[in-house]
Records
---
Amino acid sequence: MRCKLFVPGSRPELFAKAMAGEADAISIDLEDAVDESRKDEARGQVAAFLRALPADRTKTIIVRVNGIDTPHFEKDIAAISGPGLDLVNLPMTSCGDDVRHAAAAMARVDREKGVAHPAGILANIETPKAFRLAAEIACADRRVAGLQLGFGDLLEPYGIERYDPRVVLHFQLGVKIAAAEAGVFAFDSAMADVKNTDFLRQEAEAARRLGFIGKSAIHPSQVAIINEVFRPTDAEIAHSLKVVASAKEAAVKGVGAWTVDGKMIDAPFVARARAILRVAEKLGLVAREAGTGWE
């Protein structure tokens, strides 16, 4: 999931267009992008869209619901749970209890509907408290699939410069380490300055170097840059193939550390190589052969 594109839940005419676009995922927004007067209408439109999705779709489908402290949260979960939904994007998460509350509501609806494949949770880190408790949030429930940065709410209200790379790096690293503690993925924030493509690329590249799997887009024009940045390079793929192949040989010999292309290799490097190859395979950049050990 290199890039996920936000789509307003009140704009159903954009759903099919987003599905036909190049983003790996779409994130339909029932929260900030929908006026209070249209919440019920948007919820119904999103639910109808999810139910009509084909089972063999390739895009990841995410819905950002309204916060657990709003009167809309329970209605959102009841409407969207079921086939077609992969992740619930939970906004304004402040602690582990928020996640557990959301997970319990989702489980209750899943039982009522007989949902065979429950959706995961993508928890937003977009408040000072959430950043301080990011690891707690990530570890709160097994439904948590990842953490997502939200720089707008996290920085703007407090006068913190959103477009200072030093600021961005600090928060990216903190969220990545928290996600790593829980063994879940980290996803980078959207960028509101749509025309600032240079900074978009810079920020995405910083996130990728820190191990983020992708970045959000609020406009289709941002998708191509994000996809390009989070695509494994040919050099990374070639090196990863060598690392995985050498790991099999090392296991036969009972060797715990060895070198590939002059670089020391052991278990963490093998894990990274396998992750790169799994992404490359999903993008059609490399084909897996039997016994390659990419799993």
---
Amino acid sequence: MLRSLLDRGAIGLITTHDLALTAIADELAPRAVNVHFEDWFEGNEMRFDYRAKPGRVTRSNALALMKAVGLEVGS
């Protein structure tokens, strides 16, 4: 789908929580690139810096997010 959109001249942003999908941008380079925001928790609230940084995100916040909403998860 992304390849088809790019072939038609589309521009935009695609977001995902699936880190494996970030490989698609490598296959579509230089027409697509990975960027990420930094995030952290303050108490039970997730915060973002909203500054696009080059490359894939380097860590997952999934466990911290699940804990923040009250789910019991392992470390």
---
Amino acid sequence: MKFMVKIVIIVLLAFTSGYAGAYSRLDIDFETGAVFSGYNDIRIPNETGTDISFSKELKTDPTYFVRTKINYSINDKHNFAIFAAPLRLNANGKVNKPVFFEGVEFPANVQLKGKYRFDSYRFTYRYDFHPSERLMFGIGITAKIRDAAIGIEDNMTKSEKLNTGFVPLINFRGEWMPFGKIGLLLDGDALAAPQGRAEDVLIAIRFRITKDISLKLGYRILEGGADAGSVYSFTLVHYIVFGSIVSF
């Protein structure tokens, strides 16, 4: 994460040096709310592991989340953002079959705890087309660092698979404010490939309280996974989102 922040600062300094006197704006975008697990299907190792669902065979209770994004905009067109989105899901229950997971075999019908962690850190550049008070659409590219872990444990043994990697994504954002202070917001990152896919998309109602302060209420979907190498993992997560956007 520190490396990404350094890269952002270097890019901003290089880019803004050519825009002396240009209009700029800093937005702090904060989100919180409830998280609900959809499907969470796992097989590790991919070839020899046991298929297990953290949402059907085990039970994953709803939890809460916090996300933060800092966006720097130049002339309402060029946008640079850093984004932190941690996620923790905990599952519990018994499975009526032995579970072989990451080198460890868990007996059938014992109490299991499943832990799913998916922390995402992103740097985005986006260009906004025809920005105005009522309508805006932008598209860009996101560099995502994935810091993930999946674990299973009982009262005697535990096993965990760690996964850290880089993923490029397409970024998009649209705002439609037909009623001036109230409108719709669409914001997300997504990409699909033969090895897997990733989608993180928000649709929300945006309320402008003042020129520099807005609130948002909406739904976010996080979906994706991979069937490649030693890992099979596909997950769907639902978010009920409440957030604020403060501009400086």
---
Amino acid sequence: MPYDVLISGAGPAGLCLASALSGRGLSIALVEQQPRSAVAEPAFDGREIALTQTSAATLQRLGLWERIRAAAPSALSPLRDAKVLNGESPFALVIGHGLTQRDELGWLVSNHLIRRAAWDAVQDCIARHHDIELVHSDAVARLQPQAGQMQVTLGSSASHGARLVVAADSRFSATRRAMGIGANLHDFGRSMLVCQVTHQQPHDHVAWEWFGHGQTLALLPMNDDPATGQPRASAVLTLPHQQIEPLLTLSDDALGAELTRRFDGRLGAMLPCSTRHTYPLVGVYPHRLVAERFACVGDAAVGMHPVTAHGFNFGLLGIETLARELLAAHAAGRDLGAPEALARYERHHRLATRPLYEATRWIAMLYTAESPPLRLLRDGLLRVANRVTPFKRAIAASLAGHH
């Protein structure tokens, strides 16, 4: 018998989709190229995820929120306000939580803790419903639509049938490519270095996005370091690719001094307190999100530039939308792979993501441009925006996930 849904990729998106579909009488397969141990015990990867209030509610419904809190009590850090800086100017555009009806714009949590909680949630679903099967150390190699199902051939030559295949295997999705779906890629020519740091001055749970000259800096406020009690944050330094590599070989003291200098000492001396990780900045938007008995979710559907911190939030939004369509079709006795439901998912998710994807791309290009006229323009734009309360309220609503 074919699976009802075969999900390619057991990262956070694939695992969350499996949990969202579990317990409703569907048979679900998760195909993951990594070994089971890597999925069950994900390593720290440097990434701190900024969750909107909407995403936090989704994680609560899926059972991840309490799992994260139980595993690491200090992991969930409130993101109260956000500010945008430009160059050496002390002026900042401030987006405060007071523009919303909550005490915080959102929450910050380490990516590996989300992954672990998502894995544990799937294990709970398996124990209770026996409807999810994990195929690890293997990957989708070929897809062939047939009458009433998709024939899936894995790299191991194993073959499976599925009424619907879902790609959830990264922005460079091999599964999407196997289906013949191309994508628009924008390589910004830069890479991010991320690590946790302690610093002297409190951050007051304010996130920074700082468009400097020749660099972009971000500061994601975390709860105080449990070991030392010092203020702690995730520091993100974005530079041209060739300038990142030398920083990886510096001692902790030397990298701390370098980050302190780049942040102009605004939070006092900084010192790394985690491993360092680098990621290339590449935005990806597929030409299509669905095809015959096929859909994309997570980064396979939208690979965002991190400047607006919406990548994982869009992933959860797409999972909710697709799960809603699939469960409604199943409840009504309709074919899960029917084109009507997939078309509704694609239309909804494109409307929700494409405008911000394009706006983010242009913002990133404008605020990394180095010509003096553009530096003046972006400083002026920030000052004008700071005076327009409805505009700031709209940004706050976007950061909080209220559309």
